Amino acid sequence: MSTASRVFVARLAGTSVFDPIGDQVGRVRDVVVLVRAKGAPRAVGLVVEVPGRRRVFLPMTRVTSIDAGQVISTGLVNLRRFEQRAMESLVLGELLDRTVTLRDGSGAVVVEDVAIARQRNGDWLVDQLFVRRREPGRSTLGLRRRGATLVVGVDAVSTLAADGSGQGAAALLEAYEDLRPADLADVLHELGGTRRLEVAAALDNERLADVLEELPEDDQVAILSGLETARAADVLEAMEPDDAADLLHELPDAQAARLLELMEPDEAKDVRRLLAYDEDTAGGMMTTEPVVLGPETTIAAALAQIRKQDLPPALASVVFVVRPPLETPTGRFLGVAHFQRLLREPPHAAVGSVVETDTEWLTADAPLGRVTRLLAAYDLLALPVLDDEKRLLGAVSVDDVLDHLLPDDWRESHDEGLAEPERTETVVPRG
Hints:
This is Magnesium transporter. By secondary structure, the chain is of the alpha+beta class.
């Protein structure tokens, strides 16, 4: 059995986990350790992300090999969702970026990586820390000075078991920089409240907006309420108007009004329009920013619009053709042009020449049931919402409808409806 004697956890993040016959089980997302008052912290298992975006616990007793780029496990993996216990700490989620004090009196350092090493008895212990000295003041260019780095034994610092006050998030975010917003939202949801806010505050506005849209409402409210008011308004501006409106619905009226005042007028205008509708109507679910084009727009230009990376797939499936103005509420609605039809036509042709004028549409007060029936009956991914003058107000997409059909806690129910394989092995306690 080939096993690395020492592994730095930040480099282990994202590593593929394989079973004994070579099938990939998942990827490492964190390491679970028991931080004790006396003695080195002991690694008791890995948090492994398996298909379906579930995070499960893999005991270190079932890890047979940790080599460059892979972890080999033995036996079947218990697919029960990982739940952190009171005495456990997550290395990436809680220990990295923590400020600790060197016992030799030379000052404070920030933990940038943690090394675990296998002992002769098979236990994995935290034995070394990669740390950076904290340097006060700023350089002549106005940037904060970066202190020297060094590797120290875990016994060279004061205990890692602390409340995390003053803890940063740079190393954690670096380890998770490849995650999609929905996956990063899962990570934040599993962190403690204080740590969740620290990590969220370290994200830039666009990234945080994307992640907030994937979090449960309680987490959304807690994070937004924990930010400085001006920063919270900036994040709301970066969110899709319909998601921003849904979040503001959950806030106290005074707080929501204050945030709307601080938002840019153009951004706030769209959100205010959506707040006027009931949440379970087409108006309350729609986005005010679908792809809207004039009939003279070329098909090449239309394809360029729906090719934008930040456009949700459902909204990229169709363009809405209207008379000027092109901002919602638009001029008179003419029809739609579906992505597949655009691909079949010459790039220089006008979108107006392929527009479908008999498409189904919704009024802003259409209930959720009607929206669902029309999407299902005509196999559509998005539907236009029009006012009495046949002006385009926005569009409801299938993902908007799913958010309203699924239970409030659907993001926390990854295991529901998924069968686990039968197991004959003995369950090994974590501790």
